[in-house]
Structures are given as structure tokens and as C-alpha cells.
Amino acid sequence: RALAAGTGDPTDLTGTQVAAIAGGTLYIDNVGAGNVGVGEDTLATYTVPASRLSTRATLWFEAAGTYGANSNSKRIRVYFGGTGGTAIFDQTVTTIGGSWFIRGRIVAVGSSAERTTVEYQHTGQPAALQYTEHTEALAGALDLLVTGEATGDDDIDLRTFVVGWTPPV
Predict the structure, then answer these.
(1) Residue 31 has what DSSP assignment?
(2) Whose CB among 47, 99, 146, 168 lies 3.0–4.6 Å from 56's, allowing a Cys bridge?
(3) pLDDT per residue over 19-69, tens digit each?
(4) Which one-letter DSSP state was computed for residue 17?
(5) 3-state helix, strand, coil in the chain (%, to 5)
């Protein structure tokens, strides 16, 4: 929301000067990681500090990488709350090479209630959207992680992972 100059009321959008709600990037991982052999491997993790997400705050993330140039089955997942938490994104492909990109936003709607939207794209394919509602307890630290599951080394390669936060408005 914009804030009208001098009013202090976030619902008054009539002013000509506006202020932005603070927030920003919490974490960047540009090291990259690939899956190893058969099974699910963690490619990137960010631990959301306890109580970072309060009602109406949001956590956003972006992850991108490449697929191996083979027809192996490749599965990417994003979890909120670690591998024992909620799979907020789950996609399997047999893409031969190319790039992939995931963007998502987790909105806290209560102390243990979240709504998540995730957009996924990969080379030559239309975008896919996934929506989930879940109930992770936000009072404790929670892991946001990206995993890859395939059959050969580096079938899924994560090249960048960025996490940000927007405070409640």
C-alpha cells in the first residue's frame, strides 16, 4: 500500500507523495548445487528466523537452474518447514536440457496458517502455477528449501536462490 503524505493513514491514497513499506532481501545463494545420483537431495536452504512471519507478512523466493541434457525423470520440490513440512511446490519433468525458474510467495494469514502461490517455468514450456494452504507454526524457525530428485548426477542443477521478506501492512 502507498501512504499519502502527512496523513499516516495507509488507506488514504489521495496524496501526491507516497512512502513504501520496508522489506527486502534476506538471503542470496549463488554457489549452486546439483543433485547426486538417485534420490532426493537438498539443493538450497534458508532458515526463516522464529516469528519472522507474522500475520499479513510475506516471504518471497526465487530459484533458478538448469536440467541435464538427458531424458531422465527430474523432480523439483520446494518445502516450507523442512522436508517434514509442507511441499509447497512439486514438479516432475523429463525435459532434455534447458533452464528452469521458480518464484513464490508465502503469505501468513495467522500464527499457524499460510497461503502460498508458486510460479514455475522451464525452457520451451508454458508457465505452471501451484497454490497451497498450509499450517506451519510460525513461532519457531522454519526451513525453506529446494530439493532435486533424479537418477543421474546434476540432472537438476540449482544456480541461484534468493529469499526476501515483506513486513505486514
Answers:
(1) S
(2) 168
(3) 556 789 999 999 889 999 999 999 999 999 998 899 999 999 999 999 999
(4) S
(5) 0, 55, 45
Cell, residue 142: 522454519
* Residue 21 CB neighbour total at 10 angstroms: 12
C-alpha cell at 80: 516450507
